[in-house]
Design a protein that fits this description.
There is one protein chain. The chain starts with a strand and ends with a helix. The protein is built from 13 helices and twelve strands. By secondary structure, it is an alpha/beta fold. The strands form three sheets. It has an eight-stranded parallel barrel with strand order 1-2-3-6-9-10-11-12, surrounded by four helices. Strands 4-5 form a two-stranded antiparallel ribbon. Helix 10 (244-260) packs parallel to helix 11 and helix 11 runs parallel beside helix 13. It folds into two domains: 1-59 and 230-324, no CATH class; 68-228, Glycosidases (TIM Barrel), CATH 3.20.20.80. The structure holds zinc ion (ZN).
Length: 324
């Protein structure tokens, strides 16, 4: 089994300026996942578009990862969203009556704005698909969202009952369905630009459906939807103090079990740097043994931004060639 090895690129437009896609292709990489932050795309979409064009010239597959954009997606609290700051009335309302720092995926005005932005992004960037990174509702100990007017009305229309105050099973299912509907809208928007664009989703890596809307326990509802072509999962072993081999194998096997019956694919993410404690080379070889088809190294900054990368480059290229 050959492993397609990719790399995620965060760090925004400034990082893109310093990256030569031909160098990535020279390492044996075959895909890149490019973070596209809302606040940057307002002013620098052309630079991002130029970068994706050069990636395609270098024969790299390109996937866009929208960050910000109302923060329905996006697990990273450091990414800002001008939409969130400017539209407080379209944000999720939690069970204590407070607005949260995330737009409501059921709010029609937000949905329209979001769809229009995704359509524009899909027009601008030469890419093969989109990755929707951890779409979720707000959740904290003792409070959950969303109880805005739109969610209340939608729940009532579906159940002929008021939206419960407690996060019971009906609410959990409602939040899950809402996230899937949101993804369907996102995919319809990018397909308006290009029907061939692939849609991948990364469910919340450590959270449950109860917490997020869709977490590690909610894959089924995602995969049943036409909004999702591929499931993206993170082999999280470093932060969890787990064994690298066991984590790669069990994460990949769980993804294959969930996707195979529906003829959908999966992508495995692995944190990586030149530092021996990150065991990147070993991870690549283990991924091949486990039967992983597409492995994404997260990410450019920790790998190629490291002072050690110069010495590491040769061995990385050699191992990528072995597994590819
Ligand atoms: Zn709402």
């Amino acid at each position: 089994m050959r492993v397609k090895v990719g790399l995620s690129i965060g760090g925004g437009v400034r990082a893109l300026e310093r990256i030569d896609p031909r160098e990535l292709a020279g390492l044996g990489l075959r895909s890149v996942f490019v973070a596209c932050a809302e606040d940057e795309m307002r002013w620098h979409a052309e630079e991002a578009a130029g970068f994706t064009r050069s990636c395609q010239t270098a024969e790299l597959e390109v996937y866009a990862v929208p960050l910000g954009y109302g923060k329905v997606m996006d697990p990273d609290p450091s990414v800002d969203s001008l939409y969130v700051r400017e539209h407080p009335r379209n944000l999720q309302l939690d069970s204590r009556g407070r607005r949260c720092g995330k737009a409501c995926p059921n709010n029609p005005a937000f949905l329209e704005w979001f769809s229009s932005n995704m359509r524009t992004l899909a027009w601008l960037l030469e890419c093969d698909g989109f990755l929707w990174d951890e779409p979720s509702f707000y959740f904290a100990r003792g409070s959950w969202a969303c109880r805005c007017d739109y969610c209340q009305r939608l729940f009532f229309a579906q159940h002929q009952q008021a939206l419960p105050v407690d996060l019971d099973e009906r609410v959990v299912a409602f939040r899950r369905t809402s996230i899937v509907m949101f993804l369907l809208a996102a995919v319809a928007a990018v397909h308006a630009a290009d029907r061939r664009l692939l849609s991948m989703v990364m469910p919340g890596s450590t959270v449950t459906s109860r917490e997020a809307g869709i977490g590690m326990d909610g894959w089924e509802s995602l995969l049943e939807s036409s909004a999702v072509d591929q499931l993206s999962v993170y082999a999280e072993w470093q932060t969890q103090g787990r064994d690298l081999e066991a984590t790669i194998r069990s994460t990949h096997e769980a993804a294959v079990r969930a996707t195979r019956a529906r003829q959908k694919g999966s992508v495995l993410w692995l944190g990586g740097s030149p530092h021996p404690r990150d065991k990147l080379l070993e991870g690549l070889q283990l991924a091949q043994l486990a039967g992983v088809e597409h492995l994404v190294i997260a990410g450019h900054q920790s790998l190629m931004g490291s002072a050690e990368f110069g010495k590491f480059r040769k061995s990385l290229a050699r191992v990528i060639e072995q597994v590819n």
